[in-house]
Structure formats: C-alpha cells, structure tokens
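INFO  loader      accepted 1 record
INFO  loader      residues=424
INFO  predictor   begin
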Amino acid sequence: MTEQPRGLLKQLFQAAVAEADPAICLPPHLPARPAGRTLVLGAGKAAASMAQAVERNWPGDASDPGEITGLVVTRYGHALPTRHIEVVEAAHPVPDAAGAAAAARILAMASDLGAGDLLLVLISGGGSSLLSLPGSGLSLADKQVVNQALLRSGAPIDQMNVVRKHLSAIKGGWLAAAAAPATVVSLLISDVPGDDPAIIASGPTVADPSTFAQARQILMHYRITPPTAVARHLAAAELETPKPGDPRLANSRTVLIATPARSITAAAKVAAAAGYQVELLGDALEGEARDLGAQHGEMALAQQFAGQRLALLSGGETTVTVRGGGRGGRNLEYLAGLALALGGRAGISAIACDTDGIDGTEDNAGAIVLPDSLARAAAAGLNPSALLADNNAYALFQALDDLVICGPTLTNVNDFRAILIDPV
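INFO  predictor   done
INFO  writer      dumping tokens
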C-alpha cells in the first residue's frame, strides 16, 4: 500500500535534482574564450561539480594546463576530481579557517587580473558561508558567533545575507570590484526565494543595494547582541559595499543556469505522467517550517474532496527557530507539522528534501510522510508533537525508517516538496 507513493515521491525529488545537474545545465552558458587569461573562481555546494563541468566543456584544448586555472571552495565531502581548477573544502553553515583562507586566496587571484582577461565565477548555495573573509577589524571568530546566532534566530536567508555582506571583504560585490577592469561572468545556481543574484551566496560579484544600517536593524530585530568588534564595525560603516552603478562592476554580468522553478517544472512532468493533476504552490515559499507544513496539510485535506488525483508541488527555503535541543532540519520540521495536520488521513503522502542532499547539518536530504506514519509512530511509543517541540524531528523519521538519505547531490536549488493526494 505504501510502496507506490514512496517510489513516486522519490522519483519527483530525483527529477528536481537532475534538472539542476551542472553537467547538464552549465555547458550551454559558457562564455567565449577571451584574448587574455581565463581564471575560474567559485564557492558553494555545487562549486566542484561546476568546476568539473567547465573543464570538460571549455572550448579549445582543455587539456592544456595554461588554458584555464582557478580555485573553488565547496563544503566538506562535496569535492570532485579536477585537473586545472583547484578544489578546496571548508565548513558549512558556520565558516571555518579553511574557508577564510580560500576566500583570501580567491580575492588575491581576482585582483591580479587586467583588461582582456576573463574571470568566470561559479556560484551556488552555501557560498556565503564557504566564502568567508572577515572585513576590516573583524576576526573569523566574530563572524562565526554572528552566523550561529542568525542560523538559530529564524531569520530568512535574504536578511541573514545582508548582515553577512557587511561583515565581509569579498561578498556584496567586492570580488567583482577586485577583478576590474577584467570581464566578469558569473554562472549562478539559485538556492534563494526570488532568485536574486545579490542574495545568492551574498552576491560576491553583484552590486549590493543593502546598507550597514539595515544590517544593524536586522540584528536588533532578532535580538542578537554581536561581539564588540562586530558592533563597532557596523556602527562605523566606513566602507559601504559597491552599489548599483559602481563603475568597477560595469564589466560584470550574471547568468542563472539553474533555479528552483525549473526543477519544480521537471518534477511536475513526472507527476503528470503518473496521472496526477499538478498544482504549483510556488517556488519561493518561506516562513516557519512547521507552520508551513501545517498549512499545507490543511490544504491537502480540503483538496482531497475534489475527487481527483492531485500533486501539490512547492519550493523555497523555510526557517526553523531553535528552542529545543534535538536534531532536525527545516524539511523534517515541515513534514512533522504536515503529518500532525493530516492526522493519518488515508490517500495523502508527501516528501520534503533539500536538493543539495543535506537537510541542515544532518546526513539526510529530508524524509517521507505516509498515511500510516502517525500510527507507526504511536506503535513505536513516539510522541511526534513532543519531538517537534524539542526540534527533534530527526528522531521521529529515523525511528520510522522514512529518512531520505542520498548523500551530497553536488547541486542546490533549495528545498523541494511534493504532496500526493489520492481520492478516498
């Protein structure tokens, strides 16, 4: 009874991930070879797979070590073999010394370029933490404290990145400014609601419309007391990030090569082929994960009376306000909220997974909810409501053997969610 929806749900997730595979989506967007040098730099969970795709598809003799050089930084466990573009691994979501050292090297390499040279920048989700170079007067420890506080606050990614950009010497357009007057082409895999290049990985090659004042307001709103050096840096506001119209960014352009919307559309085709009417709920949904799950559960219950097979698909990046001491992730909290709202209703199943293969900091991409999930939890002596209150949804889905564990996918177009509704 439960294997059929389980298999289809996984197929939908796999279709969404495959649509954003750099080996497929990157080659059509490679720029022409320049008259001068080509330097490849990048950061993100897909940085290594993007670098590999560049090497395999670069026009001309890509076996020539002088043809392309570069450096990208990706999350631990996300590296791939490359020949000419160095791959460095670092920590995510809280930055570490390896990421800071790589960012310093990347900025120095970009600064060495001149007119006639090309800087090809490979950006994907996670790049903001991985490309962590503290601004003037700040230490890595200062940035780590602020980053951890933001992650626990429930702040949406766009607000988190406003703060990150104003504590950085490389984000918020500084990388492109350093490369001027070289041509800068940035290939982006979007993991943010709205696909704003200034938000993806905190926009290292994109003009930044936000300000120091906004960064201070965000910390105040979430009642985050930063380290003294951070408070001093934000108050001084001595060196604003490059703004729209900055001449140093005149030769910089960005190309979105993969987005959440395209991945959801790919999954929709699979659902339609399986006989489901498809309703797209949006690719940029935000909010508290458990609350969105409950809302979607109520929506699914109402839709079931329509008498047709229906697939509700959505994407985006929810948030989790951490109050308990358990293990979880935003997709697991979403599913726990969904399951509780469904109350074990027959004919409704769901999946929610991070397309990078890692839900937060755990080993799973997400999980699956089936009509008998709550019954199996009760039989195992589990209290889903109590576990969710303790931010411990991982324990729930681990005990049910309903975690989706696929390992790093080497891409990242945010979360993917699907609810399958069959008439009862």
